[in-house]
Amino acid sequence: MHVCLVSLKVVSRNLLCGSTRYVHLSALRATSSNMPPVEPVKTKDGYDYDFVVIGGGSGGLASAKEAASLGLKTAVLNYVAPSPFGTTWGLGGTCVNVGCIPKKLYHQAAILGEELSDARKYGWEFSETVTHNWSTLRQGVTNYIKSLNWIHRVSLRNAKIDYFNMEGSFEDSHTVKLTNASSGEVKTITSKWFLISVGGRPTIPDDVPGAREHAITSDDIFHLKNAPGKTFVVGGSYVALECAGFLTGLGYDTTVCLRSIPLRGFDQQMANMVADYMEKHGTKFQKGCVPSSVEKQEDGKLLVTWRNTQTGETNSDTFDSVLFAIGRHALTKNLNLDAVGVKTDAKGKVITDDEERTSASHIFALGDVLVDKPELTPVAARTGRLIARRLAGTSTEKMNYDLVATTVFTPLEYASCGLPEEEAIKRHGEANIEVWHSFYKPHTFPIAEKSNEHCYIKYIEDLSNGNKIIGMHLVGPMAGEIMQGFAAAMKCGMNRKQLEETVGIHPTIAEEVVKIDVTKRSGVDPTCAKCCG
Ligand code: FAD
Ligand code: NDP
């Protein structure tokens, strides 16, 4: 027993260092009683497992835990290849390690900086010099992420799920090969069903000389030992704007290189409001531009040249860091999908039916590897749980990808649920929708002398279908916290009358949604002249 405990401690320490190695619990038990390792028991179908999950991120872990809880013998494979910059991390996937979680914490750090200056107006007195220490923040974030890695590892063990810190690729229909790149260890396991939940990684362009050698991505920014300094951010969507937002908020000179529109796919009135707010609060924008090259200079600084795609004009400047946030590619290349007949599109995303079944009927896929589905953690996790329930035969429910709320965590957050105004017009016709809108004044703004120019809400009513609310959009502080409840109501089919009858909670921002009484069609001024409480 003593030996067993010592072995577990060794495993724990490795986990905290992010260098998890698979150790089968039966091997630990055998060590304790000096017995030879027990041969794994086959399933009733003659496989090693009922369900093997390739990719231990948001979707894979949720699916594996659900499957195991419903009695399926389950294994999870998770392997992280270092980024070109050399960053690597532990169990939990993109969200936990290099996505939602660190992003939200850096966003919070930036918000706190803004609130420090608000605090003075609220009577707090402290030294005029306020500085931010990147290392302290990074260390706090890293420690928190390590605790999440550990919790995931322990929860797999508690659920009796076998975990392999190895890269998986298909060998034949029911066999995956597991490889540990650092130790060279290779083994195979068999399963009745498989889940492809390998997610994606940021794309670095091959046509921008110097980008691959010198630039970083969202895989690196949250783990940089040294502060990024003056930063050039390429891209105009979620990742680019969120990173540029918190970098500006933390005091770094930040430029966004935006080749077309901000936040493609989102309501463009709202997207432009978000970008405009950022521009007015210190983020620089090079609009209509793409980078041409990144060169490292003798002093270590990066000389970036960029070109305006309309005028052909070129510009250059030196930066401490260059961050590419131009989208992500699915990690399907090394899975040997041809061996099992799983079809992908030209970009390597997996094609599935409406039950997330691939072209090989016993192989499923979810999350960021799917074609044209929201790339969001709660979507991947719910899809994974539903797949597991269907396989275990406890439910036939399919994932419903409609009315998924999301938030862009820019300095002023933008939350949305349902259709953008442009899309609502396209689908239903302008005559069949009513857009209700309003600027609003958060009650906390006036004392802090903050402008409410960008605090705006709109929702879209479908006049042709029971006056249902088919889109809602909110820019403002804590927009994400506000939208979740309205998304639940929209899921229940809330119509305009029900929203109007809802009594607000005063004084909140959320109450502004239920108070809106101006339509765009009326032409009445939606600005806040009458905002008085
Ligand atoms: P992942 O979480 O990416 O997990 C896949 C795992 O599989 C990874 O660990 C990978 O290393 C591993 N793997 C890959 N290939 C193999 C293989 N062959 N063998 C074994 N393992 C393999 N979503 C939100 O909802 N809210 C947010 O605020 C948010 N912020 C984000 C911020 C950033 C910067 C980024 C990049 C993403 C953000 N997302 C956010 C998106 C969210 O992180 C993803 O949608 C989610 O992680 C997708 O889950 P997944 O299970 O599909 O894949
Ligand atoms: P996206 O694919 O959403 O956006 C890519 C951006 O990069 C676009 O603005 C695009 O411009 C631009 N771009 C593409 N190629 C180039 C190029 N060669 N040169 C210059 N610009 C280029 O990628 P993201 O990485 O921002 O996000 C990936 C996904 O991650 C999102 O779809 C989202 O689901 C998820 N995510 C979610 C978050 C959240 O929930 N808060 C936060 C972050 C990510 P153009 O429009 O012109 O094509």
From TrEMBL:
Which parts of the sequence belong to the FAD/NAD(P)-binding domain?
Answer: 49-384
EC number(s) stated in the UniProt entry for this protein: 1.8.1.9
Keywords of the record, alphabetical order, are: Disulfide bond, FAD, Flavoprotein, NAD, NADP, Nucleotide-binding, Oxidoreductase, Redox-active center
Q: Where is the active site?
A: 506
Specify which residues bind NAD(+) according to the UniProt entry for this protein. 235-242, 327
List the cofactors. FAD
Extract the PROSITE patterns matched here. Answer: PYRIDINE_REDOX_1
Membrane-spanning segments: none
The SS bond pairs are 95-100
- Top-rank taxon, per record: Eukaryota
UniProt-listed InterPro entries: FAD/NAD-bd_sf, FAD/NAD-binding_dom, FAD/NAD-linked_Rdtase_dimer_sf, GSHR/TRXR-like, Pyr_nuc-diS_OxRdtase, Pyr_nucl-diS_OxRdtase_dimer, Pyr_OxRdtase_I_AS, Thioredoxin/glutathione_Rdtase
Q: Is this entry keyworded Nucleotide-binding?
A: yes
> Reaction(s) catalyzed by this protein?
[thioredoxin]-dithiol + NADP(+) = [thioredoxin]-disulfide + NADPH + H(+)
Which part of the chain is the Pyridine nucleotide-disulphide oxidoreductase dimerisation domain? Answer: 404-514
Q: Which GO terms describe its biological process?
A: cell redox homeostasis; cellular response to oxidative stress; glutathione metabolic process
Tell me the function of this protein: Thioredoxin system is a major player in glutathione metabolism, due to the demonstrated absence of a glutathione reductase. Functionally interacts with the Sod/Cat reactive oxidation species (ROS) defense system and thereby has a role in preadult development and life span. Lack of a glutathione reductase suggests antioxidant defense in Drosophila, and probably in related insects, differs fundamentally from that in other organisms.
Record-stated family: Belongs to the class-I pyridine nucleotide-disulfide oxidoreductase family.
What name does this protein carry? thioredoxin-disulfide reductase (NADPH)
Q: Which gene encodes it?
A: LOC100901278
